[in-house]
Amino acid sequence: MLWRLAIVGFPFIVLLLIPGLMYGRSLISITRKIREEYKEAGSIAEQAISLVRTVYAFGSETKLIAKLSAALEGSMKLGVTV
Q: Could you list the residue ranges that cross the membrane (predicted)?
């Protein structure tokens, strides 16, 4: 009796497993891309924090904010696709 239930249930498991694996792989690739985008934005922020006196002295805060916003734009677009 149990083997009949296994025969009936096995195709449904396969039908659920294959799309789940495909979705998981696509989610992993998008997550890697988002991580790379955040790494770029993090390096810009790290430079700005370490050189805060220079940034303030030359009055380039707006330039730095624009650069950081542009770096975060890519991760935001990828985050919307998730």
A: 6-24
Predicted TM-score (pTM) of the model is 0.64
Place of tokens 């694996």: 21
Token pair for 42: 């993090």
Rg for the chain, CA atoms, rounded: 23
Structure tokens at 4: 């009949």
Count CB neighbours of 22 within 10 A.
Answer: 10
In what helix (H) or strand (E) does residue 52 lie, and over which residues does it extend?
helix 52-58
**For 7-63, what is each residue's pLDDT tens digit?**
988 889 989 999 999 999 999 998 898 898 889 888 988 888 888 887 777 778 888
